[in-house]
User: Fold this.
Amino acid sequence: MSLPTATPTLSITGLNAAYDGSQILRNITLEVPQRQVVTLMGRNGVGKTTTLKCIVGLVKPLSGSISLAGVPLDGRRPDERARGGIGYVPQGRDIFPNLTVWENLLLSLVVHGRKADEEVARVLELFPVLKEMLKRKGGVLSGGQQQQLAIARAMLTNPKILILDEPTEGIQPNIIDQIGDTLIKIRQEGKVSILLVEQYLDFCLGVADRFYVMDRGAIVAGGPIAGLNDTIVKKYLTV
Ligand SMILES: Nc1ncnc2c1ncn2[C@@H]1O[C@H](COP(=O)(O)OP(=O)(O)OP(=O)(O)O)[C@@H](O)[C@H]1O
Ligand SMILES: [Mg+2]
Assistant:
């Protein structure tokens, strides 16, 4: 007897993309199953961010299809995709440096009134460090705190999937652990799937259920995270 297959939160089939006529993505096919953390790995310049930009609607693919919880996203604008359940934290995280932490959070809210305070309180449970910094300007936070603020903002949009582009880049090791713990908590809550682009191997091993590896615009390996072996790491990941 076969088990019923649940619709993946995100599924990409045969995705091709180019910048100015030079092809960057080659036939990318990948899935993020419900309630799982999937990491997309690969060296600099292989096309990880471009893949994410296709998902969020910032780059228009040449061909291929992308579905969110079974619904095709073709032709949808980035804001429609965001409202539809895609929470995106770009590489280098963009928060508003001149607004306070509290104001940064308010701008992401999709609800208003008393419900809004409840939503912020609920999300702040995941980010204890931000609770003490609500009145500070975003720009004075450390890199790690800004990253947590960026993730909190994405969580406030009530996403079906949280998409993170290299959240550990340029961040101190002890804060990296905090970010990892947050992702594990989000996973345990079981409401949001996560697609994590990341080059820091140990971080991926600690949080991911499944992995994909990209090289020169194509997916070259993938499977349960336990299958990410030394051969793959040496061939495609270490510099
Ligand atoms: N806007 C753009 N116009 C033209 N080429 C681009 C553009 N953005 C990226 N590229 C090129 O596309 C390729 C893939 O870039 P991409 O940013 O997707 O890689 P990445 O895997 O995210 O790299 P990194 O690990 O450094 O963030 C690179 O060769 C890059 O130089
Ligand atoms: Mg990138």
